[in-house]
């Protein structure tokens, strides 16, 4: 039903949202997003009392709005050893992925607290189809049960597992990219910084959907888009509280990659941001800082979009944005 409604004319969706079309300077909120925000308003109202388990259940339910999983893509699950535990890594493949396929190791979003490979199952399947590459979706351990740096360590273990098992997995070990959305974008950027600093092999490219790059949470867009655009400023403070052992860790470049003094010699990057997103400015700044450091970057600015759009391919214009991202990432993975 929601998918059908999103195809209605923009003027009608604005009318149904019961507000004037929302603008912020030259940015105009895409009408289907304005209507979607009306449908989902008041999803979380009390950040003082909500628990991670309660939020996880609500997020999983929300993720069930589907555009349809690609019929050409199949998947299977693997168990990967990490420190004191094991995690699940889901492998996506299709007829277009051969025995020497490029690969994308993907880290889901959700503020390091919510989300899993199920909430991002459709997106990772879609990426497999569009990239004609194998995708390995990582079910890293969540906070606050596993605080920083545990999620980052899990992601690195999964990345190394794909490299070390590339022959058995049918993957070209020289064409393994890393990527993620929001907190997953943060983990991707931090992974690249960590491995560069330790002189380890780097991802072929990095895919950053609206990444968290500065957990100081003091950018202008954090206040401009503080409330009413799906991700809120209060939510970001809640996520930070659960992810970090102490608030002072926000100054660590492996928590806030934008604070790194040197971004040179990192993998080429896709950085995609949304105009109505508290994380907009830090994502844009990270893209520009990478460029000024000599890193090849495709910077996609979606002025009328909201945070989380990659999981919303039922929204008109989102498929075209994903197509553009995948076209550029395929080129970087050659």
Largest sheet: 8 strands, mixed
Number of strands: 10
What's the rounded overall pLDDT mean? Answer: 95
Name the structural class. Answer: alpha/beta
Through-space gap between termini: 40 Å
Give the topology string: H per helix, E per strand.
Answer: HHEEHHEEEHEHHEHEHHEHEH
Annotated CATH architecture of the largest domain:
3-Layer(aba) Sandwich
Number of helices: 12
CATH superfamily of the largest domain: Alpha/Beta hydrolase fold, catalytic domain
Count of domains: 2
Query: Strand-residue fraction?
Result: 15-25%
- Walk across the major sheet and give the strand order: 3-4-6-5-7-8-9-10
CATH class of the largest domain: Alpha Beta
- Name the poorly predicted regions: none
